[in-house]
Amino acid sequence: MATIYDVAQRAQVSPATVSRVLNGRASVDPDMVVRVQDAVRELNYRPNSVARNLRRSRTTLWTVIISDVGNPFFTAMVRGVEDVAQRAGYSVVLCNSDEDPAKEAQYVTAALQDQMAGVIISSSGHAANVNRLIEAGTPVVAIDRQISGANVDSVLVDNEHGAHMATAHLLDRGYRRIACITGPRKVSTAAQRLRGYQQALREQGFATPAALVRYSDYREEGGYAAMASLLDAGDPPDAVFAANNLMTVGAVECVVDRGIAVPAGMGVIGFDDIPWAHLVRPSLSTVSQPTYELGRTAAMLLAERITEPDRPASTVTLQTTLKVRESSLRP
């Protein structure tokens, strides 16, 4: 069997460089990364998992805890995690918390009991679960959601800016009573997207009445119910910004059921792109997140945390993109 020294000799680099590449470290020169990866393939090198586990007293598994396995946003994100994990010699175990802190706590307990090499978590907002991992010495990275009260590596997107872009776009298209359907109150992404919506309205001299805001559950049914509540109010909106993809789908379904034309009677824009957003009619305007890059970056941070457990925690914030389609383009 080929060893790490054989790979180093074939790639003409040091064994330490091979180790950094296999662990997903971002500090290696890209040319060296390619050479090491080529040598690994040519020699059919496989890390010695037994020796690795003895050194770490852990498995070669990463746990990825996400809040909703049914949301396509997380599908691309987990793919980004898995691609880096595989190159670094790890496999991924996927867990679905269903936005339930108790279920999330159960998965954290399982990760600790099974001595997982690391955990990537999209938390329901409770720092206690993440702090249990930190206190046990388990490498952990928070993804998508900021966790107040936990000193942890995090990979986020600029939610406020994305929501601001979406709301400002609706204002530019002539909509004036713009509603916001946001997520659970304790989830950071929901609060940040609500703030971006409110800031865009204030900057253009519009009020931010509470009557136009609905808190929901980041699910399709919740988006439908929130939209119905807005339409049944005394002075319904002429546009809506929905703070995630599934709630956008639910909101549009409700609007269509009520016989309201999109975008003439109701402008719609959502947060998170949807794979088929450009196929429906009218096509859906969205704020697109770099979902694959979120996962890839989180996995690289986790690999670095495993290699350097004592380094200071860091936060990486990625940018969003506004994708304007038919649903927000009032004639």
Structure summarized in a few sentences:
The chain is an alpha/beta fold. It has helices at 4-11, 15-22, 30-43, 49-56, 72-87, 101-113, 127-135, 159-172, 188-203, 220-232, 245-257, 291-307; strands spanning 61-66, 91-96, 118-121, 140-143, 153-157, 178-182, 213-215, 239-242, 267-271, 285-288, 315-318, 321-323. It is built from twelve helices and twelve strands.
Q: Give the beta-strand count.
A: 12
What value does the average pLDDT take?
90
Biggest beta sheet summary: 6 strands, parallel
Question: What overall geometry do the principal axes of the alpha carbons give?
Answer: elongated
How much is the radius of gyration in Å?
A: 22 Å
| Number of continuous helical runs | 12
| Structural class determined from secondary elements | alpha/beta
Instruction: Output the strand order for the largest sheet.
Output: 2-1-3-4-5-11
Distance between the termini: 67 Å
Poorly predicted regions are none
Order of helices and strands: HHHHEHEHEHEEHEHEHEHEEHEE
How large a portion of the residues is in β-strands, by DSSP E?
15-25%
Fraction of residues in H or I helices: 40-55%
Explain this structure.
Helices cover 45% and strands 16% of the residues. The protein is of the alpha/beta class and 331 residues long. The strands form 2 sheets. The chain has a 6-stranded parallel beta sheet with strand order 2-1-3-4-5-11, sandwiched between helices. A 6-stranded mixed beta sheet has the order 7-6-8-9-10-12, sandwiched between helices. The mean pLDDT is 90.
